[in-house]
Amino acid sequence: MAKVKQAVFKAAMSGLYHSGATRLLSPYTQGSGLIFMLHQVRPAQGSEFNPNGILEITPEFFEAVLDQVAEAGLDIVPLDEAVTRLKEGDDRRFACLTFDDGYRDNFEYAYPILKRRNLPATVYIPTDYPPGRGELWWLALQEVIARADEIELCRDGSLWRLPTATVQEKWRAFEQIYGWLRAIDQVTQRQVVRALSERYGVDMEAMCRDLIMDWDELREIAADPLITIGAHTKGHYALAKLSSERAREEMKGGADCLAEKLGRWPEHFAYPYGDETSAGPREFHIAKELGFKTAVTTRKGMLFPAHKDHLTALPRVSLNGDYQSLTYTGLYLSGAPFALYNRFREVNAA
Ligand SMILES: [Zn+2]
Predict the structure, then answer these.
(1) Cα 236 to ligand 1 centroid, rounded to whole Å
(2) Which of 1-5, 83-87, 98-102, 256-260 bottoms out in mean pLDDT, i.e. has the lowest?
(3) Residues 176, 179, 183, 184: is their CA dihedral positive or negative?
(4) What spacing in Å lies between the alpha carbon of 271 and ligand 1's midpoint?
(5) Residue 132: its pLDDT value, please?
(6) How far is the CA of 130 from the centre of ligand 1 (A)?
(7) How many angstroms is it from 311 CA to the middle of ligand 1?
(8) What does residue 124 show for φ and ψ, rounded to 5 degrees?
(9) Which long-range contacts (CB under 8 A, 24 or more apart) does 80-85 make?
(10) 75-76 and 94-100 as β-strands: parallel, antiparallel, unpaired?
């Protein structure tokens, strides 16, 4: 189903591009600026089964987007400057770069590009990750399915068996299990992935140590004035699924830990997963109370002057691995796809 939706979206995007409608719409849809969301930046892995590929782009594509943003006349600014421009009604358009989770490839591939071009960025760190305690469960699940010919797991008290021998079966199984795991309570979700990892020989701790920057690497980039370190909780749970006390403790605890390790309390925050089921008004309020200057979601959209009153619920634009084409990013800069997307959702919700 996801593939079908993606094909429809790509066709709609292509139609939008070729119709020239974006040029007509952009004065109304482009807003003041946007916040790009990135995860991994590394050379293409070339695997046929790579459901988390949406979370990674190549260094070449990253550079091409940076060129495109510059050509479109947007300044790449730190989040602090974005806040200032929104508050002052400054009409110079801007883009911010944000990286979630602290992947080591950010250090190896993205950081040298940023340094060479003298561009600022924010990196959001869940503090369980640098010491190797992070449960990157979506990657562990991918690895389990990659290794197995069949998956057996316990769902709501009964046995669930999924064939995972062929590439197609692996994609289908990932989609089904991932969807279920995103919906259920956070404790069960982690238990299920831990049990699967153990059974199929996937070492989540080694995976975390391998993929995520350690504190030494983080100290190095944090010392660079170009890089802002932002908070991203401790254990990367979907906050809206936790009790209010737990959610607050995750948010504050992560920030306190960053302050202790890096010598500076983070002023910016990103909600793990960041969609409507993971962060809502309760979390936006807690972020404000804790004193974060901004907090970003993964809701899609551009920034408009009115966002100055909603700084702890900011939308972002994902640089998605499945859409590594300057045609798409050119459309993103116009804001038209998000205006249509949000309108489409409103119509469907009505
Ligand atoms: Zn994250």
Answers:
(1) 6
(2) 1-5
(3) positive
(4) 7
(5) 96
(6) 13
(7) 19
(8) -95, 125
(9) 80/228, 80/267, 80/293, 82/33, 82/35, 82/294, 82/303, 83/293, 83/294, 83/308, 83/311, 85/32, 85/33
(10) parallel
- How far is Cα 271 from Cα 278, in angstroms, rounded to an integer? 8
Look-up: residue for tokens 């979907």?
Answer: 238
pLDDT digits (tens, 9 = 90+) for 307-326: 999 999 999 999 988 888 89
Q: Is 10 exposed, middle or buried (CB count within 10 Å of its CB: 0-12, 13-18, 19+)?
A: middle
* DSSP-based three-state secondary structure for 270: strand
* Predicted local confidence at residue 350, as pLDDT: 45
Q: Considering only CA atoms, which of 229, 239, 309, 308 is closest in space to residue 274?
A: 239
Beta strands in the chain (DSSP E): 33-38, 40-41, 56-57, 75-76, 94-100, 121-125, 150-155, 158-163, 227-231, 268-270, 294-300, 314-318
Amino acid letter at 274?
Answer: G
CB 76 within 8 A of CB 120: yes
Alpha-carbon span 115 to 283, nearest angstrom: 34
**Cα 209 to Cα 103: distance, rounded to the nearest angstrom:** 10
- Dihedral angle over CA of 84, 310, 228, 267, nearest 10: 100
Tokens 């002052």 belong to residue: 88
